[in-house]
Amino acid sequence: MGSSGQHGAVTTWDAGLEETLRQIVGRQAVDYVELRLEVNEATVIELMGTTPQRVDHQRDVGGNVRAVSGGYVGFVHFDGWNQLEACVREAVQLAQWGEAASLGPRDGWAPSQVVQLRARVPYGEDPRGVSLEEKLSLLQGYADLGLSASSAIQNVQTRYFDRYRHLLFLNSRGSVVEQEKMDLGGSVLMVARRQGSVAQRGVSFGSSNDFGAVRGLGDEVRDAARQAVLLLEAPEIVGGEYTVVVDPHLAGVFAHEAFGHLSEADGQVDDAGLLQAMRLGRRFGPKNLHIYDTGRDEGSRGYLPVDDEGVAARDIDLIRDGELVGRLHSCRTAGTLGEQPTGNARALHYRFAPIVRMRNTVIAPGDTPVEGLFQGIKRGIYATGSTGGQTNGEVFAFRAAQAYLIEDGRITQPLRNAVLTGNVFSTLDNITAIGSDFTRYEGGGGCGKAGQMPLPVSHHAPSLRIERCLVGGGR
Amino acid sequence: MTITDPFVQRLTKPRRAGEQVLLMEVHRQQMSARVRGGQLEGIDQGHEHHQAVRVLSGGRLGYQGSRAADWDALLDGARAGARGADLDGFVLSALGQGPASDASSGDAVRDPAPTDLAHMALAMGRALSGEAPEVVPQAQVQWMRQWTRLVDGDGVERRWMRTEGRAALSGRAVRDGDFMTVGTNRGQSGALPDPDGLLDHVRTRLAWGQRIVSLEAAALPIVFMPPVAFSLLAPLLARLSAPAVTAKTSPWSDALGTRVANTEVSLGSDPGIADGPRSVPWDDEGTATRRVPLIDHGVLRHWILDRRAAHHLGQPALGLGFSGELGSPPTPRPANVTVIAGSTPWEDLLQSHPRLLILEGWVGGRPVNPLRGEMAGTATGLYLVDHGAVVGRVKNVVVSVNALEAWGSRLSCMGDEQHWVGGGMMQLAPACLPPILVQDVAVAAKS
């Protein structure tokens, strides 16, 4: 058994494989079994300056089995496919041990529809059709642009990856999903140094189907180099509460960190206090706030037509008209809470079981022109871009790539070290204006949870104005 | 020891003049049990096998690794990917210069059964549920056994095995929009951690956090507990490491032998600690490991360089090339990061000032610019101490600190006990360090 095909082309599974797997799954005397096989290929390029530090192409073959008995889960992952049936038996035994070690049956899993489909990547430009030499040359060109932008640019660190996954999923309910996934992205990081002062600024890119995302970044690279040099002289932000205007990129990170993670139902299950705090119908933010999660946005890194439990994607409204209306589910969390699976069960690699994750988290546009967001701000912060964020459910923090002081409604000077923080619940209520400048941002980073990182996600949003945002910094 | 595997032996004979080869093979078995809310969520088990070839071909370095490909394909791929600067005079590995015998720390250790892990996780989760019904407990217990084999182009082979047990316990109580989350994790070679230690830690924090106290914006002394103190090391490690050192973007790229931190600070890479998660006889580049002082009593002694970076700077390779995860090529990384403990007992730390804070967790506590040292994070585990006694939990506070100053002029003293910090998704290396008391830290509070 195996898959066949050429690098750069659509691979297909051997004709007899599905039937063999069906038989293996069908022989197990437990409540539920699923089997996922993968063939993965990845190219990684890293440059320091214009010199390649890492150029490699990796190919993995493996899979996993998940079995459920009395609500208890046994999960086994494996490299290679030589011991498939033994691994299935192991997973079944682990689930049965779990049941025996516990106090009684757990909640069942939500029934998912039986799905039989084949999902191909809707390519723009397939990165596997671009030669390694062309990729290298393109990236070296960006490094050259950065280095030549200013004598203060001491180094440019460039990173590129593309990852192709070809999956075959079967479960004991009769679903069979053959799915291709592509994820590509990277960054060009400019490091400026003048005497003891160091500053950095990067350009990030990503796509789920188009190498074109890597092309035509020259202007952005030159601009980032200029910004890095400007940051060398920028004063540190003074910590305290500010009215903050965030650009679409940072607003998207805000939606992801400040609200998206809280909407993941695996954090809510078995927690009466949190379920009460996240009760559907609760007011959350202004009347015109609409946040949803979607797997159907072709090209975005959060594109996921079918999740890793075989559930087809649909748009999930989380906040609509300022009211909490939904949450993100796997089959397990949906079953426990008596709701429907949402297509948000995702696994980074066959070494991991699917858990509840976001896909593309979107804040719908408002009607305030960008200039209007600044009106009446006596002293505030304009924060753009992001170098990452984090949440624990109640509070969040994200690092702005750039920040500027707003005085009397006008941007006056750049600042460094902007970390925007807050309480999730109160900060959403403090959104007082939503911009009309909706932007699709696709970066090259990813989301981390339970050791699975970086999972491709995206966030599309307009600019936001937030009152009383706590900003970290010196005195 | 010379290898006997004819297939590998054939491949290690260089096929091209001047070509150097290093093969690495890893088998890993792992299992874990997860408990949430007093109930078992699941038991996981995994079998991993990874092979990699590193080659110096035509003076250029190539790497290819896979969970599936055979050695021939890997060697061809590594040759095809060989790029970069011409490494004239570069020696790919030094297996022959390391210890001659196998180090098999895991040989005598018996693996626990998956049910042992489940029972331990259940016992911790249920103990916490029983004592604090309002808390939703989460527990995870993991066990890992890993075999590693390195073979160089001369057929010199080194093998070793290690085992590691890890456990994590946390509890969360959500009440009227207030989240109280406490947790800890432990890991060690050769055995599962003591569950009582984790339970005691969580119980203590739950007791500290029962009362919420408010705080005005201020500059206060803060005890940074080991997990947060380790995040404060990130800017120092960035300044110490290639590529910042080799590219001269590190302000410490010309600072060997000069003072860069408080004289109390001795920071090193130690592969010899008995229960260290990265205590290994060789690094992933085939260099024998040894204890490396990085900063000794405040003075910069060594950088963190892999073989290529060491070659670039004309420095000796010191066993500081490790893969971040299975399948990644080695990069400059310490073995186990250690900060030598100070001499201040825990009680004396708390009584050193009439009023101080203990910071055990923060979100976002990563540097905006790793080389500059400025950091800020929202406190998630912040406790107010009044005349040596913890009086409550502080909320809605951002702590801002320059990490270089925290390990420099603002470092007041260090605790007399080290604790392991490990397991984070973005962590450079496991670390063992004491709590540190830092003066005059900016605290911004929500009004």
How is the topology of this model organized?
The complex is a heterodimer of chains A (475) and B (447).
Chain A (H helix, E strand, L loop, with lengths): L2 E2 L7 E2 L3 H10 L5 E17 L2 E19 L2 E8 L4 H18 L14 E4 L12 H18 L3 E19 L4 E19 L2 E11 L10 H14 L8 E7 L1 H13 L11 H6 L13 E4 L21 E5 L2 E2 L6 H7 L7 E2 L8 E2 L3 E4 L6 H4 L5 E13 L3 E13 L2 E6 L3 E5 H6 L1 E4 L4 E3 L5 E3 L2 E4 L2 E4 L2 E9 L3
Parallel strand pairs in A: 6-8, 10-17, 16-25
Antiparallel strand pairs in A: 1-2, 3-4, 3-7, 4-5, 7-8, 8-9, 10-26, 11-12, 11-16, 12-13, 14-15, 17-18, 18-19, 18-20, 20-26, 21-26, 22-25, 23-24
Chain B lengths: L5 H7 L7 E17 L2 E19 L2 E7 L4 H10 L22 E2 L9 H18 L4 E17 L4 E19 L2 E12 L5 H14 L3 E2 L4 E7 L1 H15 L26 E3 L22 E5 L2 E2 L6 H7 L7 E2 L8 E2 L4 E3 L6 H5 L4 E9 L10 E13 L2 E6 L2 E6 H4 L4 E4 L4 E3 L9 E3 L2 E10 L2
Parallel strand pairs in B: 4-6, 8-18, 9-16, 15-22
Antiparallel strand pairs in B: 1-2, 1-5, 2-3, 5-6, 6-7, 9-23, 10-11, 10-15, 11-12, 13-14, 16-17, 17-18, 17-19, 19-23, 20-23, 21-22
Helix pairs in contact in B: 3-4
Spatial extent as radius of gyration of chain A: 24 Å
Low-confidence stretches of chain B: none
Radius of gyration of chain B: 24 Å
Structural class of chain A: alpha+beta
Largest two-chain interface: A-B, 92 and 82 residues
Major sheet of chain A: size, sense and barrel closure? 7 strands, mixed
Main structural class of chain B: alpha+beta
Word description of this protein:
The complex is a heterodimer of chains A (475) and B (447). Chain A has 475 residues and is of the alpha+beta class. Chain A has helices at residues 17-26, 84-101, 132-149, 218-231, 248-260, 272-277, 331-337, 370-373, 424-429, and strands spanning 3-4, 12-13, 32-48, 51-69, 72-79, 116-119, 153-171, 176-194, 197-207, 240-246, 291-294, 316-320, 323-324, 345-346, 355-356, 360-363, 379-391, 395-407, 410-415, 419-423, 431-434, 439-441, 447-449, 452-455, 458-461, 464-472. Chain A contains nine helices and 26 strands. Chain A starts with a strand and ends with a strand. By secondary structure, chain B is an alpha+beta fold. In chain B, helix 3 runs parallel beside helix 4. Chains A and B meet through strand 4, strand 5, helix 2, strand 7 and strand 9 of A and strand 2, strand 3, helix 3, strand 6 and strand 7 of B.
